[in-house]
Amino acid sequence: MRKRHVMGRRLPPHHVHPRSIALLTGLGLSALLLVGCAAPAGTAQPETSPAEPVEAGEPVEVVEALLNDEMTTEQNGRVSWTTTWRACFEQYGGNTTRFEAQAVTTEGSGTSLRELDGQCLELDIASGVNDAAAGMLGRDIQLAEASTLAYRVRAVLDDGTVTPWTDPVRVGATKPSG
Predict the structure, then answer these.
(1) Buried b (16+ CB within 10 A) or exposed e, 112-146
(2) Which CATH number describes the domain made up of 61-170?
(3) In angstroms, rounded to a whole number, what is the distance separating the alpha carbons of residues 161 and 119?
(4) Which residue, 5, 116, 133, 153, is the most exposed by fewest CB within 10 angstroms?
(5) Predicted structure pTM score
(6) Confidence of residue 50 (pLDDT cuts 50, 70, 90)
(7) How many CB atoms are located within 10 Å of the residue 168 CB?
């Protein structure tokens, strides 16, 4: 048998610890990336966050909060029903562009804002379909569950300022108008 002679690049001898070489290479590259991406001392950029609007005036007031029940007769002696909670707000002084609401739970305030249609926040907080003789079966339980949520509301004024937030208004709470 004849030996074949292969011309070309010579391969390095087999290293006995290939994992350690890969680890050291990875660590070296990571260090280079960190050093290369770091800003020189004293030139760090401040973190950017959305600007909070300037507050002005007094918080809006809850002028009315009520529960409204609607019932529709279905076939076979059944009814479908819905309970809607509606809370309306008014801002005194300044020209209001819109109202914003933010959910509040026992864990704190949410991060998203909900723009109100007009001056009122309206939520369906209980509903069901059942035998007419049973009335609005389960309504009280659903209302109790809904009351774990609250909303705070503020007005956005023409000049871009906002009123302070109201105290949280518990969902399902009522206040007669006037």
Answers:
(1) eeeebeebbbebebbebeeeeeeebeebeebbeeb
(2) 2.60.40
(3) 17
(4) 5
(5) 0.69
(6) low
(7) 17
